[in-house]
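Hello Y.,

Per our agreement to keep a running log of every chain we model this quarter, I'm adding this entry. I've kept the format consistent with earlier entries: sequence first, then predicted structure.
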Amino acid sequence: MNTEFEFQNVEEAYHAIAEDLMAFPGERAWDEVVGKYEVYPKMVSCRWWLVKEGCVDRKWIGGSDEFHSRAFAAVLYLKDDLIKSGGDRIWGLTCTIRPNGDLGDEFCKVKFNIEYDYNKPEDYDESDEFITGEEANQSLRNLFG
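Predicted structure for the entry above:
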Protein backbone atom coordinates (compact mmCIF):
# COMPACT_ATOMS: atom_id res chain seq x y z
CA MET A 1 0.00 0.00 0.00
CA ASN A 2 1.24 3.46 -0.83
CA THR A 3 2.14 5.34 2.36
CA GLU A 4 2.60 8.71 0.69
CA PHE A 5 -1.05 9.60 1.26
CA GLU A 6 -1.64 11.72 4.34
CA PHE A 7 -4.88 13.18 5.59
CA GLN A 8 -5.34 16.22 7.80
CA ASN A 9 -8.85 15.31 8.91
CA VAL A 10 -11.69 12.84 8.44
CA GLU A 11 -13.29 14.98 5.72
CA GLU A 12 -10.21 14.51 3.52
CA ALA A 13 -10.36 10.76 4.17
CA TYR A 14 -14.07 10.63 3.28
CA HIS A 15 -13.34 12.58 0.09
CA ALA A 16 -10.66 10.04 -0.95
CA ILE A 17 -13.10 7.16 -0.43
CA ALA A 18 -15.82 9.01 -2.36
CA GLU A 19 -13.41 9.59 -5.28
CA ASP A 20 -12.66 5.87 -5.42
CA LEU A 21 -16.36 5.01 -5.40
CA MET A 22 -17.20 7.64 -8.02
CA ALA A 23 -14.51 6.25 -10.33
CA PHE A 24 -15.67 2.62 -10.06
CA PRO A 25 -18.62 2.70 -12.52
CA GLY A 26 -16.70 4.39 -15.31
CA GLU A 27 -19.31 5.54 -17.85
CA ARG A 28 -22.02 3.11 -16.67
CA ALA A 29 -25.32 4.42 -15.35
CA TRP A 30 -26.06 3.58 -11.71
CA ASP A 31 -28.61 4.04 -8.94
CA GLU A 32 -26.06 3.39 -6.21
CA VAL A 33 -22.40 2.46 -5.89
CA VAL A 34 -21.14 0.54 -2.86
CA GLY A 35 -17.67 -0.13 -1.48
CA LYS A 36 -17.43 -2.65 1.36
CA TYR A 37 -14.06 -2.32 3.09
CA GLU A 38 -12.57 -4.88 5.48
CA VAL A 39 -10.12 -3.26 7.89
CA TYR A 40 -7.10 -5.14 9.23
CA PRO A 41 -4.32 -3.75 11.43
CA LYS A 42 -2.16 -2.57 8.50
CA MET A 43 -4.14 -3.33 5.36
CA VAL A 44 -7.55 -2.98 3.78
CA SER A 45 -9.47 -5.08 1.29
CA CYS A 46 -12.55 -3.99 -0.60
CA ARG A 47 -15.35 -5.20 -2.82
CA TRP A 48 -17.15 -2.73 -5.06
CA TRP A 49 -20.43 -3.00 -6.90
CA LEU A 50 -23.04 -0.82 -8.48
CA VAL A 51 -26.78 -1.24 -8.70
CA LYS A 52 -28.86 -0.10 -11.65
CA GLU A 53 -32.59 -0.84 -11.77
CA GLY A 54 -32.17 -3.62 -9.22
CA CYS A 55 -29.32 -5.37 -11.08
CA VAL A 56 -25.94 -5.73 -9.37
CA ASP A 57 -22.80 -5.23 -11.46
CA ARG A 58 -19.42 -6.04 -9.90
CA LYS A 59 -17.34 -5.55 -13.05
CA TRP A 60 -14.45 -3.20 -12.44
CA ILE A 61 -14.21 -0.61 -15.21
CA GLY A 62 -13.28 2.77 -13.77
CA GLY A 63 -10.87 3.85 -11.11
CA SER A 64 -7.18 3.34 -10.81
CA ASP A 65 -4.67 1.76 -8.48
CA GLU A 66 -3.88 5.24 -7.16
CA PHE A 67 -7.55 5.87 -6.28
CA HIS A 68 -7.70 2.47 -4.55
CA SER A 69 -4.44 3.03 -2.65
CA ARG A 70 -5.57 6.47 -1.53
CA ALA A 71 -8.96 5.12 -0.42
CA PHE A 72 -7.31 2.25 1.47
CA ALA A 73 -4.99 4.73 3.22
CA ALA A 74 -8.06 6.83 4.06
CA VAL A 75 -9.81 3.84 5.63
CA LEU A 76 -6.75 3.12 7.79
CA TYR A 77 -6.65 6.81 8.75
CA LEU A 78 -10.31 6.63 9.85
CA LYS A 79 -9.60 3.46 11.89
CA ASP A 80 -6.65 5.10 13.65
CA ASP A 81 -8.50 8.41 14.14
CA LEU A 82 -11.45 6.67 15.80
CA ILE A 83 -9.15 4.77 18.16
CA LYS A 84 -7.15 7.92 18.95
CA SER A 85 -10.31 9.87 19.78
CA GLY A 86 -11.35 7.21 22.28
CA GLY A 87 -13.71 5.30 20.04
CA ASP A 88 -13.95 1.63 19.31
CA ARG A 89 -11.86 -0.14 16.71
CA ILE A 90 -13.59 -0.60 13.37
CA TRP A 91 -13.29 -3.86 11.45
CA GLY A 92 -15.11 -2.73 8.36
CA LEU A 93 -17.03 0.03 6.73
CA THR A 94 -19.54 0.21 3.96
CA CYS A 95 -19.69 3.34 1.84
CA THR A 96 -22.63 4.02 -0.44
CA ILE A 97 -23.23 6.83 -2.91
CA ARG A 98 -26.58 7.61 -4.48
CA PRO A 99 -27.68 10.37 -6.85
CA ASN A 100 -28.80 13.46 -4.98
CA GLY A 101 -30.47 15.33 -7.81
CA ASP A 102 -29.04 18.68 -6.72
CA LEU A 103 -26.96 20.80 -9.08
CA GLY A 104 -23.38 21.64 -8.31
CA ASP A 105 -20.00 20.02 -8.53
CA GLU A 106 -19.65 16.25 -8.82
CA PHE A 107 -19.60 15.57 -5.08
CA CYS A 108 -22.70 17.70 -4.45
CA LYS A 109 -24.63 15.58 -6.95
CA VAL A 110 -24.48 12.50 -4.74
CA LYS A 111 -25.39 11.49 -1.22
CA PHE A 112 -22.51 9.80 0.56
CA ASN A 113 -23.27 7.41 3.40
CA ILE A 114 -20.79 5.53 5.55
CA GLU A 115 -21.55 2.76 8.03
CA TYR A 116 -18.92 1.48 10.43
CA ASP A 117 -18.70 -2.19 11.42
CA TYR A 118 -17.39 -2.69 14.96
CA ASN A 119 -17.69 -6.48 14.93
CA LYS A 120 -14.43 -8.40 14.78
CA PRO A 121 -14.64 -11.22 12.22
CA GLU A 122 -15.12 -14.55 13.97
CA ASP A 123 -12.25 -16.19 12.09
CA TYR A 124 -9.75 -13.37 12.71
CA ASP A 125 -6.91 -14.20 15.11
CA GLU A 126 -5.50 -11.01 16.55
CA SER A 127 -2.77 -12.66 18.63
CA ASP A 128 0.79 -11.48 18.37
CA GLU A 129 2.03 -15.03 18.59
CA PHE A 130 4.25 -16.30 15.83
CA ILE A 131 5.55 -19.71 14.95
CA THR A 132 9.26 -20.26 14.57
CA GLY A 133 10.65 -22.22 11.66
CA GLU A 134 11.50 -25.13 13.96
CA GLU A 135 7.94 -25.22 15.34
CA ALA A 136 6.53 -25.23 11.80
CA ASN A 137 8.87 -28.06 10.78
CA GLN A 138 7.95 -30.10 13.86
CA SER A 139 4.26 -29.61 13.13
CA LEU A 140 4.77 -30.81 9.54
CA ARG A 141 6.78 -33.82 10.72
CA ASN A 142 3.90 -34.71 13.03
CA LEU A 143 1.43 -34.47 10.15
CA PHE A 144 3.43 -36.46 7.63
CA GLY A 145 5.11 -38.90 9.97
